Amino acid sequence: MGQTRLGQVADRYLIHKTNKRHKAKRMYLTGKQTTLLGQIMQTLAEPHEETEIREIMGDLIMQLLGAQYYASFVWQPGSQSFAQPIQINMDPLNLRAYESYYQFHDPITPLMQRYQVAVRATDVLPIEDLKKTEFFNDFLSKDGLYWGVNLYAWHQGQNLGDMRIWRDKRRDNFTPDEMRLLDMLQPAFVTALARAQRTHQPESLTLNTLSQRLTTREQDTARLVMIGMTDKEIARALAISTTTVRTHLENAFRKVGVSNRAALVHKLRP
């Protein structure tokens, strides 16, 4: 018998986890898609707030895949729920209903969330079965959502955010090539969200009184070192060059009386 849809997704997940390459498959992109891919990669390489990343990606991904609807949430492990919604072409009241009720009666998203590759709604539940559910008839149908694909940003066991892309019934389901496009973008999406999350953390990191010897920018750099960011990541987060990052670090080393990053962190911790 042929492989099931869920089996195909599982195989792609295993390939991702074991870092094996997909067999070479020719993928044809239009000129517009090529341009959009460049814009997406540029956006993901730039320092943006986490919410901005999910908003900008929504517009670009919809254009790339010819989709009509987009939503994005962030998983809250404490409450075991999705929050911080972003939407394009969806009714905000309907999304509020999702937050308060429908996410707890959602037959597809908990299954889709398990995967670290793009996964279609029909990969976890056939469309004819989905159409029989309260979730489809009272939530998805209100905005005209019919064919869906989700991509989750997993980083060190944490779900940083997701992209939920939908088409209406008049269009076709997402193709294997479109799934591979999303898989190609997933590592950069994860990196961008992880970087944005780390950038917010330094504000809550307290340095000891030795830090008073440092300039404000040197303190900012030291805080980012404390949470494990590389020179390149610090440069993106602070919108400065890597050369300037190294200058700030060398000045901090000298002023605090250390010779490396580990010693700097040790010296500046409260």
Write the layout of secondary structure elements.
Elements: H1 5-17, H2 31-45, H3 50-65, E1 69-76, E2 81-88, H4 92-100, H5 109-112, E3 119-120, H6 121-124, H7 127-130, H8 134-143, E4 147-155, E5 158-167, H9 176-200, H10 216-226, H11 231-238, H12 242-256, H13 261-268
Antiparallel strand pairs: 1-2, 1-5, 3-4, 4-5
Question: In a few lines, what is going on in this structure?
Answer:
Helix content is 53%, strand content 14%. With 270 residues, it is an alpha+beta fold.
Structural notes for this entry:
Helix content is 53%, strand content 14%. With 270 residues, it is an alpha+beta fold. It has two domains: 5-199, GAF domain (Beta-Lactamase); 205-268, Orthogonal Bundle (Arc Repressor Mutant, subunit A). It has a five-stranded antiparallel β-sheet with strand order 2-1-5-4-3, with helices on both faces. Strand 4 (147-155) and strand 5 form a beta hairpin. Helix 2 (31-45) runs parallel beside helix 9 (176-200) and helix 10 packs across helix 13 (261-268).
CATH topology of the largest domain: Beta-Lactamase
Strand content: 5-15%
Could you report the average pLDDT, rounded to the nearest whole number? 87
Tell me about the largest β-sheet.
5 strands, antiparallel
CATH class of the largest domain: Alpha Beta
The helix tally amounts to: 13
Q: What is the helix fraction of residues, given as a range?
A: 40-55%
What is the CATH homologous superfamily assignment of the largest domain?
GAF domain
Please tell me the CATH architecture of the largest domain by its name: 2-Layer Sandwich
- Main sheet: which strands, in order across? 2-1-5-4-3
- Give the uncertain stretches in residue-range form: 12-22
Which overall shape is indicated by the principal axes computed on the Cα atoms?
A: elongated
Estimated structural class: alpha+beta
Distance from N terminus to C terminus (CA atoms, Å) equals 63 Å
Total number of β-strand segments?
Answer: 5
- The radius of gyration computed from the alpha-carbon positions, rounded to a whole number of angstroms, is 22 Å
Order of helices and strands: HHHEEHHEHHHEEHHHHH
Number of domains: 2
